[in-house]
Write a structure and sequence with these properties.
mainly beta, 7-stranded mixed beta sheet, 11 strands, about 50% strand, globular
Length: about 120
Amino acid sequence: QVQLVESGGGLVQAGGSLRLSCAASGRTFSLYAMGWFRQAPGKEREFVAAISWSGETTYYADSVKGRFTISRDNAKNTVYLQMNSLNAADTAVYYCATGPRALTTVLTRYTYWGQGTQVTVSS
């Protein structure tokens, strides 16, 4: 049993920043990799960022590399996504996910998902 709850979404103007949080419960959090995905209306859910169980290895989609930072605090069972220099193309529902022990960008490898949090960037 794993439960993930995202928070921190909202409305922001272009060029602004938001920090998303994902609180996990139900199993030993520190043993699993975590990922962030997003889905805009009419589009497939896409990979955004992932982090290894140790927090020492990260990977980003090309569309967000250099602007977004994923991090985790295993003592707090929480993963974060710091989003800077936001633009209208970043508007989507953002989901955190877990399941694999090794870092992966493949959506189908993630078996547990949060409910999502809306991020809207005004232009």
